[in-house]
Design a protein that fits this description.
heterodimer, A: mainly alpha, 0% strand, globular, B: 331 residues, alpha/beta, Rossmann fold, Alpha-Beta Plaits, six-stranded mixed beta sheet, four-stranded antiparallel beta sheet
Chain lengths: 270, 331
């Protein structure tokens, strides 16, 4: 796919989403308020009950920062309303139009996904600006410019991995009419094992070691830890390499599933 | 440009009986039936030819078109479109074909036409000057210049179909599949779409396959038709030949000075042919083609006739007859 087309697809998708102005502001305000309340209520209670200053390597303000930033990162990694786009297009036959276009379907959808997260990036940035002044100082996190710069490639890799990982469950739609349950399951599993709900340092040691080699951690926890200055350069490079390796693995798994799936595709109706 | 040989498509369809018990049962075990959508189609379409594909709902027309567009794979058989195997999805082929589905919008719902076309320019890699000239020409012909900045979802059905046509023809395809392009449109828009397609054919000479339930589309656009019945091609030939060869009768319309209630007069008419309509002194009859002259002469001789006309039956009647159960025939 030529770069101009890729950028054009991205831009069109962003423009489409930004045209829904009410939706843009409402989603941002409501989701931010809910997340701040949940994170604050949960962790202040945990720290108060335990009577400790440090839990799993985090102080209270540090883990509050993690809770807020992993939420903002997660919004970008998961993207907006295109999470089930491939499954929906297979189900309702809209895939047909892409099959006659002289361009790669997977790249087309990825370009649209990237365009789709632009409003999320904008929202997350605005939300971070709102929340930052109210964050207390922490001894366990260090939010600085280097961390912000290093988090950008981590975020991009996480987004790519989430997209490719999501393709196989979505392509089950070639065989089954409704794959919504698979999507919910994937969301739950990635949230829990990816550190979207709580830092993986709170998990038992053997599970942490295992998760370090699994793809989930690189979706949410890794880019957030990088942003909060908790990842050194060597660990950052290793993390990116593992994340990209999983991208390749899932891509290689996706290709035969796509080939077999399109053989079954009916385009809806006879 | 399109060569099809013994193309077959069989779908496996999940049978779901009504009721809650059946739904629960289907969670554990499902029954499937085979549906033959296309049963061995063989035909070809040349440059500049518009072939009308006619058949009842579910006859297999759309399935055939989807296979030739490379959207679905056949169960067996061969097809070559511009020398390519369509389901191999070569980009060289995809740049030269187009599909318009009247029942399914293909443009981006939330975008204005101008944005959709710009995106298609990138997809098909159309050089800017060619694109601009082509867009200007197409929008002028279809008279939608003023609607280019309106979101597709806010357009009327007719305007939307015109935008779909522009989107499908911007890259000047050499093969065009039109699946019910005039469905749901008012008579004026149907006519403008037909005129537009004829003009496009004149300028670009593409191979076109058109499916439609409107006989007006077929009669105006196609010299050749293919009739499909339950997945089988039952007729492939010229529109004129279908009338001459498959209409065993002519339509005789007689206007009499008075009604023919007398039993004897009615007996004469019944002997000459089949009376299909009779009201207020007007009789419509189907008369065997080889007896039409003598029948007309006898009617003129024996009745007080104001007017008499002889015509071929409606094409739709003949096609209905063919779809009802004639054997397969090719020219």
């Amino acid at each position: 796919m030529n770069p101009a087309l890729f950028l054009h697809l991205m831009s069109i998708e962003s423009r489409r989403l930004l045209s829904y102005r009410v939706d843009f502001w409402l989603t941002m305000v409501v989701s931010l308020i809910v997340q701040v309340i949940v994170v604050w209520a949960l962790w202040t209670a945990v720290f108060a009950e335990s009577g400790r200053d440090i839990v799993g390597g985090w102080d209270l303000h540090g883990i509050l920062a993690y809770g807020i930033f992993v939420f903002l990162m997660g919004r970008i990694v998961r993207g907006g309303d295109l999470q089930m786009e491939v499954a929906t297009e297979i189900y309702d036959g809209s895939l047909s139009r892409y099959l006659i276009y002289p361009c790669n379907y997977g790249l087309t959808k990825y370009a649209q996904q990237l365009g789709n997260i632009f409003p999320d990036i904008l929202q997350s940035f605005l939300m971070a600006l709102i929340v930052l002044p109210f964050m207390g100082t922490s001894t366990t996190v260090d939010l600085n410019f280097t961390g912000i710069l290093m988090s950008l490639p981590s975020l991009l890799c996480a987004h790519l991995l989430f997209y490719i990982m999501g393709l196989i469950p979505q392509m089950v739609a070639f065989w089954a009419d409704n794959v919504w349950s698979l999507s919910v399951m994937m969301r739950m599993v990635t949230m829990l094992l990816g550190g979207g709900a709580l830092p993986l340092s709170l998990f038992p040691e053997p599970l942490q070691t295992l998760l370090a080699w699994m793809p989930f951690r690189y979706l949410f926890e890794f880019p957030t830890l990088v942003l909060l200055g908790k990842v050194g350069l060597e660990e950052w490079i290793t993390g990116l390499a593992i994340c990209l390796a999983w991208c390749v693995v899932f891509l290689l798994l996706t290709i035969p599933v796509w080939r077999r799936g399109t053989l079954r595709y009916t385009g809806v109706g006879i | 440009m399109i060569e099809v040989k013994d193309l077959r498509k069989i779908f496996q369809i999940h049978k779901k009986p009504p009721g809650l018990a059946a739904s629960v049962k289907s969670l554990f075990r499902r029954d499937y039936v085979e549906k033959v959508a296309v049963a061995g189609a063989t035909f070809s379409v040349g440059e500049g030819e518009i072939v009308g594909m006619i058949g009842a709902n579910g006859a297999g027309k759309t399935t055939l078109v989807k296979m030739l567009a490379g959207i679905i794979h056949p169960t067996s058989g061969e097809a070559r479109v511009l020398g390519y195997d369509p389901w191999e999805k070569h980009n060289d082929l995809r740049r030269q074909i187009s599909l318009i589905m009247g029942q399914k919008a293909q443009l981006w719902w939330d975008l204005p036409g101008a944005d959709c076309f710009e995106l298609l320019r990138e997809i098909y890699q159309i050089p800017r000057p060619t694109y601009e000239a082509s867009l200007r020409h197409l929008t002028e012909m279809l008279q939608v210049e003023s609607e280019l900045t309106t979101q597709i979802r806010r357009l009327s059905l007719g305007e939307r179909m015109k935008m779909e046509l522009i989107a499908a023809l911007l890259h000047s395809p050499r093969v065009v599949y039109l699946d019910e392009p005039t469905i749901g449109l008012d008579i004026t828009t149907q006519k403008s779409v037909r005129d537009f397609l004829l003009s496009y054919r004149k300028d670009h000479a593409p191979a076109m396959i058109l499916t439609s339930h409107y006989m007006e589309d077929i009669e105006r656009l196609c010299e050749r038709i293919i009739i499909i019945r339950e997945g089988e091609l039952v007729y492939d030939g010229s529109l004129q030949r279908v009338i001459h060869e498959y209409a065993p009768y002519k339509r005789l319309t007689v206007h009499l000075s008075r009604s023919t209630s007398a039993t004897m007069e009615r007996e004469i008419l019944d002997r000459l042919g089949e009376v299909v309509e009779e009201q207020a002194g007007t009789i419509v009859m189907h008369v065997p083609r080889d007896q039409v002259t003598s029948a007309a002469a006898e009617i003129l001789r024996k009745f007080d006739v104001q007017d008499l006309s002889i015509a071929d039956p409606e094409i739709s009647e003949i096609i209905e007859l063919l779809m009802g159960g004639r054997e397969k025939t090719t020219p």
